[in-house]
From TrEMBL:
Keywords: Metal-binding, Oxidoreductase, Zinc. It comes from the Eukaryota. Residues 104-224 form the Alcohol dehydrogenase-like N-terminal domain. The keyword Transferase does not apply. The keyword Oxidoreductase applies. GO terms for molecular function: oxidoreductase activity, acting on the CH-OH group of donors, NAD or NADP as acceptor; zinc ion binding. InterPro entries: ADH-like_N (IPR013154), ADH_Zn_CS (IPR002328), CAD-like (IPR047109), GroES-like_sf (IPR011032). This is Alcohol dehydrogenase-like N-terminal domain-containing protein.
Length: 262
């Protein structure tokens, strides 16, 4: 069985998609090494250029370089994934961790597919900012709901996808969350290596794993017509392209230019 497939898409510039099929043992045999994959990318802007040109501020509030101040773990459950570890030299190693207890408005997802974005490489190799290790990358996630909180809107067996966010303040007092632009929320939690901001503690771990727990609002049901292998990359590279096309009403036969994504 073919476990992983690598796509290099020239249209996306320096983005690529590495398909993870959720088979821990098979991936272990393949000796996945992020540093060896990074040569598929063109040179990136320096962190100082990214900071001043694109982000208009520090990258560090989104990601954590310090251990979580309070642990929030469910000791009865262990999730297994592939993590960047101390002194790992870019090689992902098998890592088990206890997830946070499943909240009333959360779901547990058994992961079947996960893409690898250029950002995963940058953070796992500390190309942009220091990180807390061990950390499991991955934010183009597809899987099946296998557990749900009492107030979850999802059903058992739903096929869902998760992108680059797993949390925000989600209140009607937030300028951004009320407009559906949670990515600008000061209390957002990105999918891996970020502190949760709901007061329960803990740091997020990503999708190169067998399971993940996320808030309902960040698990999106996938239409049956879209295969999981194709849906995964839509949760980062896909939506990055689709959003401006929709916002600027670029319909069929429109002539557009796509700058590098990743």
């Amino acid at each position: 069985m073919q476990v992983c497939t690598l796509f290099i898409d020239c249209i996306k510039g320096w983005d690529f998609f590495f398909l993870w099929r959720g088979d821990i043992e098979a991936l272990e045999r393949s000796s996945l090494c992020l540093s060896s994959l990074s040569h598929f990318h063109s040179p990136q802007p320096s962190p100082s250029i990214l900071k001043s040109t694109f982000f208009k501020g520090s990258l560090s509030p989104m990601f954590s370089s310090q251990p979580a101040t309070a642990k929030c773990e469910d000791p009865s459950v262990t999730f297994t994934g592939w993590a960047a570890v101390p002194n790992g030299n870019g090689v992902l190693q098998k890592f088990g961790y206890h997830p946070r207890p499943l909240g009333a408005e959360e779901v547990e997802i058994m992961i079947t597919h996960c893409g690898v974005c250029g950002s995963d490489i940058h953070f796992a190799t500390e190309g942009w900012t220091p990180i807390v290790r061990p950390v499991i990358p991955g934010h183009e996630i597809v899987g099946t709901v296998v557990a749900r909180g009492d107030n979850s809107a999802h059903k058992m067996g739903d096929r869902v996808g998760v992108g680059c966010l797993v949390g925000s303040c989600r209140t009607n007092l937030c300028e951004w969350c009320t407009k559906g632009e949670d990515q600008f929320c000061d209390q957002k939690t990105v999918t891996f290596n970020a502190p949760y901001t709901d007061g329960r503690g803990g740091i997020s771990q990503g999708g190169l794993a067998d399971r993940i727990r996320v808030f309902d609002d960040y698990a999106f049901k996938i239409p049956d017509i879209i295969p999981s292998a194709e849906a995964a990359s839509m949760f980062c590279a896909g939506i990055t392209t689709y959003t401006p096309l929709k916002r600027y009403k670029a319909g069929p036969h429109s002539r557009v230019g796509v700058i590098g994504i990743g």
